[in-house]
Specification:
mainly beta, eight-stranded antiparallel sheet
């Protein structure tokens, strides 16, 4: 809301606010539309949404700048979505309304606000994988605004910075500022900063997302400029209410951070504690970890390792998103050169640090990356054995690079050539 310290008379009362969308619609027919009552939780496909408070106010005209700060009024509505607080507002002419807010990949839009808060309705949408149009390309020079789509502009604050990881991998980060331009009589002018973030980019997939925008680096001159492709992603309505949303009925085991609050736990070894009612599966089968536990986990290189009852190991990001990992020596598969392995329909898949598939091809088996290469196979099978560790037999074996391309024989190291020769002689890999 646009205000000044000169506006000194702020009166609280109730405000009669019209429908934000004009005429009343049949709400039950609008996907993603959620009716809310004060302090009554509503379970949605995006989590539990709560309307926490409604503040209505009137604003006295500024005696010094009446045109810039006229008499007006407005209502600000406070919400939380799975514990994340945000607010929306509807203001009179001359003041800026905030009718949209973002929580991770979910957009919350204020649709209807009735007098005295008698009726509050919002619409929930989630960012999908579908692009609305073909990607466009623009050159972004350091500290110079680039208009993406009025009124949104982007500013690259820093060029690429290469970071070394403990496992020998390298990643690149770029600091980006998003601004909303103001529409003036002579055209658009740079306005307020909406967000500023530093994105860590995996070298195998130089891309990132912000709200419903997708960006990818086409080419760059580190520290000077980068050519970016960008596109909008479609929003899909989130269903509500979710009447049958399961409670957190799965136990988890993890190492808590040193400053974590105490919770009741059963210690299973020196480092790991098991916690009841820690996780659940949503209606689509995706893992959801209770935010109270997400805040407690100890991070290792930016991720937590969590063992979920009957579901196996997961890598968990600080925002609560998770990735199912294969088990390796009683732990989740470690990160190697910025990638980790997971399973999709019984096949090995390589994922990057954004939990995206780094290589589109899926393999019957694949080993972690080392020195830029990974050994993979198709047609290989586990050998029957009475022992815990079994060998892989048969199939075709080869090395791939980070893009999934087969590495030519002359580019292999002596050790890699030796491994392939042993496989051809013995027909098995231990």
């Amino acid at each position: 809301m646009k205000r000044s310290f000169l506006v000194g008379f702020l009166c609280f009362g109730f405000l009669a606010t019209p429908h934000l969308d004009g005429e009343t619609t049949e709400e039950s027919a609008i996907p993603g539309l959620v009716d809310l009552s004060l302090d009554v939780p509503v379970k949605t496909g995006a989590g539990t949404l709560v309307l926490t408070s409604i503040v209505s106010e009137t604003i006295a005209e500024s005696p010094f700048l009446p045109k810039s700060y006229p008499a007006g009024s407005g209502t600000t509505v406070h919400f939380s979505l799975d514990g994340v607080a945000f607010e929306l507002s509807s203001m009179s002419e001359g003041y800026e309304s905030q009718t949209n807010a973002w929580v991770k990949d979910v957009r919350v839009a204020l649709v209807d606000l009735q007098p005295r808060g008698a009726h509050v309705a919002v619409r929930l949408d989630r960012v999908s994988e579908r692009r609305l149009d073909e990607p466009r390309t623009v050159r972004a020079t350091k500290n110079r605004p680039v208009v993406l789509e009025p009124p949104l502009e982007l500013v690259v604050k820093t060029g690429f910075v290469t970071n070394g990881d403990p496992d020998g991998a390298s990643s690149r980060s770029v600091q980006v500022e998003f601004r909303e331009m103001y529409l003036l009589e002579g055209g658009f002018s740079t306005g307020q900063v909406l967000d500023e973030q530093t994105f860590v980019l995996d070298p195998s997939k130089m891309s990132w997302r912000w709200r419903d925008w997708e960006f990818a680096v086409v080419k760059s001159e580190p520290g000077l400029w980068m050519d970016l492709s960008f596109a909008r992603l479609a929003l899909e309505p989130i269903p509500w209410p979710i009447q049958d949303l399961e409670p957190y009925d799965l136990s988890c085991s993890y190492t808590a951070s040193s400053d974590a609050t105490n919770l009741s736990a059963n210690q299973i070894d020196y480092d790991w504690d098991r916690y009841e009612e820690c996780a659940r599966l949503d209606p689509e089968g995706r893992l959801q970890i209770d935010p109270a536990h997400v805040e407690r986990v100890s991070l290792d290189d930016g991720f937590a390792r969590v063992l979920v009852q009957t579901k196996g190991w997961y890598h968990v990001r600080p925002d609560g998103t998770s990735l199912s990992a294969i088990s390796f020596d009683f732990s989740p598969d470690p990160w190697s050169e910025g990638l980790t392995r997971g399973l999709r329909e019984g096949k090995i898949v390589y994922f990057n640090r954004q939990f995206e598939e780094a290589i589109s091809h899926h393999y019957d088996w694949g080993w972690p990356f080392e020195n830029g290469h990974a050994l993979v196979c198709e047609g290989c099978e586990l050998e029957d054995s009475e022992f815990e560790h079994r060998s892989l037999v048969g199939g075709r074996w080869w090395f791939i690079d980070h893009e999934g391309n087969e590495v030519e024989h002359e580019l292999l190291s002596e050790d890699e050539i030796s491994r392939l020769e042993r496989l051809s002689r013995h027909g098995k890999h231990r």
